[in-house]
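=== RUN LOG ===
request id: a7f3
mode: sequence -> structure
chains: 1
length: 194
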Amino acid sequence: MTMPYDQQQDIPDEALLVLYANGDGAAARALTLRLTPRVYAHAYRMLGSQADAEDVAQEALIRLWKIAPDWRQGEAKVTTWLYRVVANLATDRLRKARGVALDAIPEPEDDAKSAAETMQDRARQDALQTALATLPDRQREAVVLRHIEGLGNPEIAEIMDISVEAVESLTARGKRTLAKALAGQREALGYTDG
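=== RESULT ===
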């Protein structure tokens, strides 16, 4: 029996995945609508390209649907598993593209902002993406998960399959490197000390 979408909003991800594995197409749609923005955003932050992020997000979700019949509830959160898959796919894509500059595609314009604010935001995003691209893969992944995706260190440790202490070390080193890379750009990016 298929539940309407509005009744599935309070069902945990893991339960929706099991429902999908048992033939509930509405559960798959609900889970896709719930997870796609997060998966895409994580892929974009890792890759800096909308097209590559879309490809990685789609591949990660396809892999989720393929493993659905074998999903063992309680072993891992669906989001943790997906973040790890996205990180691995993005890392593989970056390694294949080494030596090729990643295109910096700006975020879509927000109608509520002025042209100057939009340009400022775009410059800040481009500067951050450029600085992120200089970090080693593991540091970039840890910094993105912690400071952009907002995940806690224990969840990051599980995603990256490392200790919490290693996560703390990677994020600290990554933040220091980013701060150095962006320090000379404060005024140009519209940040003032006043």
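=== NOTES ===
Residues 2 and 24 are 6 Å apart (CA to CA).
The chain has a mean pLDDT of 81.
=== END ===
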